Each structure stands twice: as structure tokens, then as C-alpha cells.
Write a sequence for this structure.
């Protein structure tokens, strides 16, 4: 028994039995029919018999699923920054988080195609309550972030996860993906939660934080979708927050959001791997600041990279101009693109509701605002 058994993905010797336990599940059939259209069930059932590792499963099946998602629900995936990464080095990708499933799936496809080390990725256990999803997540090298715990249990869980991430990076030479915050960004304001960094730092065991974080080889990851296929689904929670109301999810809300993220139209998608954060921590090492101040500084480093390299699309500029009743960024989009976005707005929400419309536009416009702020800071 390992102390990580409760949260870890499958070991390779467990993969074949786990895969065959869900091989004939209706959701697996749907997934494989999507991945291999026109193929009979026996096609993938026979191939499942030869799958004996997570790598086998990801290379032969999941990669094909993600390619099919890109083909059917986007106008293509572009990347930048990955050429700076070493093929034999494990990195900690700290990423802005927009889509439950696709953020990490797209990253791993890019890493696979570029011959880089693929990630073990964090996923909330609240998202994999169904047995099929739980097994599929562990087959995809996901490790579980435990939710809904008491304060004491949360502290223990955070320490365990911190140790596990450190173990993956330094003992298994396995890259790791985690979101910069708990849950997806719903309003377009990407910001690193200090609590995420505190969790990582639990494994430092007295080592100075700058030295510890330098060894993690953090790569800030910027993910941007031209259209967010879950934009309308995010509105109820945003509106509740604006009214200081408690938002309670429906029992199947997360599952519906997953499906919408996978199948909904995204238009263009871009992933940027930021510069590995190493020398940046040397300045912190010289400072006699408190740990909290150091964590704040580290969060700012990550945020600066993510926002600076976030690909802004015509939809972002259109939303800014509509929200502010201006044509400030009209040079970044065509009239046809503006009309298409306005039509999407009318189809996705009740645009007669002024507050709802403001929140919807803000989701797309805020990356423009944040990018402009970052440029101003850099120039000052």
C-alpha cells in the first residue's frame, strides 16, 4: 500500500483490468464511436485487450479522441513556447483554467506530438463521482483533488497532494498539470490563488521558498479559446456571485458542462508555454520578506506570464468595445466577425437583461483589460 493510493492514477499493471471493467459501458461505446466513426464495437474491444499501460491507452485512444474533438468543434489548435522545453525534463505546468476536460487534454496532445513528457493532471474528485468517469480519469493519469472536506481533513489532503506532486516531478520524472486556482475561471480574470502555492510549498520542509519553487521548474501555461463553449453555462454562477447569493449546482451540472466543453464550438484555440521560472526566484531569495509576501510575488510572476501570452481573439476585442460602447479595438476585428459574435450573444443569453449581458461580455472582455494592465506595468 502506498500513502498515495487514495489519489493516484492507475499503475500500469492495473490498467488492463480497469479498462476492461468499463469496456462495454454505454458511455465508452459513445466515446469510441465518436473517436472512430463507422467502426464496429469489436474494433476497439479487441484493441483494449492489448492495452497494458496508461501510455498505451493515451497514445492509441485518447490522443485520437482529442484530435477528433479539434476537428469537429474547432477551427484548429495552435501553439507557441513549447520548443524551449527539454524532452527529458519534467515540468510543473501551472495553467489558467477554462474547460474541465479540454485544458489538460489539449496540453497532453501537444506534449505527445512534440515528444515531451506528458503530465499527470489534477482533477477534483467531485467531477468523477460516476464510476465510469472515475475509472477513465485514472486511466488518463489524473490524480484526485479531494473536495468537500473539513478544515483539518483539507490540511491533511493538501499536504498529501503536495508530497505527491513533488514525488511525481522528482522521483518519477513525470510532468504535472495543475490549475492556477480551484475551479475554472468564469469571468475571464485569470489569477493565481495563493492557496494553490501554499499547497505546493507544504513539501518544502523548511527549504527556503525561492529555492524550493525553482526546483519545481514551473511553466506558466496560457490557454485561450476564441469561443468558450460553456460561456452561457457559467452565467448563473456569475450572476449569483454579483448578487451575493449562494450558488448551488444541480446534480448533473458538471457532467453537462464537460459535454458542452468537449462538443461545443470553440473556433480557434491557442496554447502558450511560458518561460520556465527559475532565475526569477533568485531576486526573491535575496529579499527578507515573509513567506506570504514571497508567495504573493510568485503568484504575480505566474500571472504576468499567463496574461502576457494569452492569445486575444477578435471575440475578446469585440466584447470590450460592445461593453464600453466604443470602437477602440475595431482594428482587431471585421464587421462580419462582430455580427457573428452579436448573433451568438443573442442566441446564448437573454440580451434584454442588462446585467446578464454585461457579465457575458465581461467574460470575453476582461482578458483585454488585463493584458492592457500588464503592458502598462511593464512599461512603467
Amino acid at each position: 500500500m502506498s500513502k498515495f493510493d487514495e489519489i493516484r492514477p492507475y499503475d500500469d499493471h492495473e490498467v488492463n483490468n480497469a479498462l476492461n471493467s468499463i469496456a462495454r459501458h454505454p458511455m465508452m461505446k459513445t466515446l469510441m464511436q465518436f473517436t472512430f466513426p463507422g467502426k464496429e464495437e469489436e474494433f476497439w474491444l479487441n484493441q483494449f485487450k492489448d492495452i497494458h499501460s496508461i501510455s498505451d491507452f493515451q497514445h492509441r485512444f485518447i490522443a485520437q479522441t482529442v484530435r477528433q474533438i479539434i476537428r469537429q468543434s474547432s477551427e484548429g489548435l495552435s501553439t507557441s513556447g513549447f520548443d524551449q522545453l527539454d524532452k527529458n525534463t519534467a515540468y510543473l505546468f501551472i495553467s489558467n483554467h477554462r474547460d474541465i476536460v479540454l485544458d489538460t487534454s489539449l496540453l497532453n496532445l501537444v506534449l505527445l506530438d512534440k515528444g515531451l513528457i506528458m503530465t499527470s493532471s489534477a482533477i477534483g474528485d467531485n467531477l468523477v463521482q460516476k464510476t465510469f468517469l472515475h475509472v477513465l480519469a485514472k486511466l488518463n493519469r489524473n490524480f484526485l483533488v479531494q473536495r468537500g472536506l473539513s478544515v483539518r481533513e483539507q490540511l491533511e489532503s493538501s499536504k498529501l497532494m503536495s508530497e505527491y506532486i513533488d514525488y511525481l516531478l522528482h522521483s518519477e520524472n513525470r510532468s504535472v498539470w495543475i490549475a492556477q486556482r480551484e475551479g475554472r475561471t468564469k469571468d475571464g480574470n485569470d489569477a493565481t490563488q495563493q492557496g494553490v502555492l501554499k499547497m505546493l510549498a507544504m513539501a518544502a520542509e523548511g527549504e527556503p521558498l525561492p529555492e524550493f519553487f525553482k526546483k519545481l521548474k514551473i511553466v506558466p501555461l496560457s490557454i485561450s479559446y476564441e469561443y468558450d463553449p460553456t460561456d452561457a453555462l457559467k452565467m448563473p454562477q456569475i450572476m449569483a456571485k454579483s448578487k451575493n447569493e449562494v450558488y448551488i449546482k444541480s446534480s448533473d451540472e458538471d457532467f453537462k458542462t464537460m459535454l458542452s466543453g468537449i462538443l461545443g464550438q470553440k473556433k480557434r484555440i491557442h496554447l502558450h508555454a511560458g518561460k520556465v521560472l527559475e532565475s526569477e526566484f533568485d531576486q526573491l531569495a535575496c529579499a527578507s520578506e515573509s513567506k506570504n509576501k514571497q508567495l504573493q510575488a510568485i503568484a504575480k510572476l505566474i500571472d504576468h506570464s499567463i496574461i502576457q501570452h494569452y492569445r486575444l481573439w477578435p471575440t475578446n476585442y469585440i466584447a470590450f468595445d460592445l461593453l464600453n460602447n466604443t470602437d477602440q479595438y475595431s482594428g482587431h476585428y471585421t464587421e462580419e466577425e462582430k455580427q457573428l459574435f452579436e448573433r451568438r450573444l443573442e442566441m446564448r443569453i437573454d440580451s434584454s437583461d442588462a446585467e446578464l449581458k454585461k457579465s457575458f461580455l465581461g467574460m470575453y472582455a476582461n482578458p483585454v483589460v488585463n493584458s492592457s494592465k500588464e503592458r502598462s506595468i511593464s512599461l512603467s
In short: The beta strands are 76-80, 92-95, 119-124, 142-145, 175-179, 218-225, 268-273. The two ends are 55 Å apart (CA to CA). The chain has two domains: 72-311, 315-379. The first helix runs from residue 12 to 21.
